[in-house]
Amino acid sequence: MYTTQEIVRISKLYYELGLTQQEISEIENISRPTVSRILDAAVKEGIVTR
C-alpha cells in the first residue's frame, strides 16, 4: 500500500519535526486522511511506537 520510504518520511515529519497532519498533507500534496492512514501504518508495522 505505502512504501517503507514513504512511511518513514511522513513519520519523521510528524514525530520528529512536530508538523501537523494538515501541514504534512500540504507539503506532500496528499490528503490529510492519507497522512493519518500512513501514520497508522507506521505504528502497525512497528516503524514507530506511540
From TrEMBL:
One of its GO terms (molecular function) is DNA binding. SUPFAM superfamilies: Winged helix' DNA-binding domain (SSF46785). InterPro entries: HTH_CRP, WH_DNA-bd_sf. This is DNA-binding transcriptional regulator LsrR (DeoR family). It holds the Pfam family HTH_23. Gene3D superfamilies: Homeodomain-like. Residues 1-50 form the HTH crp-type domain. It comes from Caldalkalibacillus uzonensis. Keywords: DNA-binding. Coiled coil: none annotated.
